[in-house]
Write a structure and sequence with these properties.
25% strand; four-stranded antiparallel β-sheet; disordered C terminus; alpha+beta; 112 residues; 2 helices
Length: 112
């Protein structure tokens, strides 16, 4: 499981959990803590996604706890910057929802 730091389309910082497929998982700063989002991916089967949502959440939090060296119950209480510090530097995350957007300077090709 890889953690990739990225700025989303609204200029907000996110930490995406890779690989992605039928589930998109990401952390975002919320005040002085973090929030974990688990959403259905582009190719998700709704019933399977709902059946596995809790297991995915627990697996992501367990990996974050391992990297941070804290109990699982404390992960979301930590500052976003702590998790950002243990991200995989080489991991690159494209748009997890499969939507291509035009680059900011408009003369470049679409972002991937």
């Amino acid at each position: 499981m890889l953690f990739a730091h990225q700025i989303d389309g609204r200029d907000r910082e996110c930490i995406f959990v890779l690989p992605m497929g039928s589930v998109v998982s990401y952390f975002m700063a919320e005040g002085s803590c973090m929030r974990l989002h688990i959403e259905a991916g582009l190719c998700a089967y709704e019933d399977e996604f709902e059946a596995n949502r809790y297991a995915v959440r627990e697996a992501v939090l367990a990996e974050a706890a391992r990297r941070l060296g804290v109990p699982l119950s404390e992960v979301l209480l930590l500052p976003f910057e702590r998790l950002k510090a243990v991200c995989d530097r080489e991991a690159v995350c494209g748009n997890p929802w499969g939507i291509r957007r035009r680059a900011r300077n408009r003369s470049a090709s679409f972002c991937r």
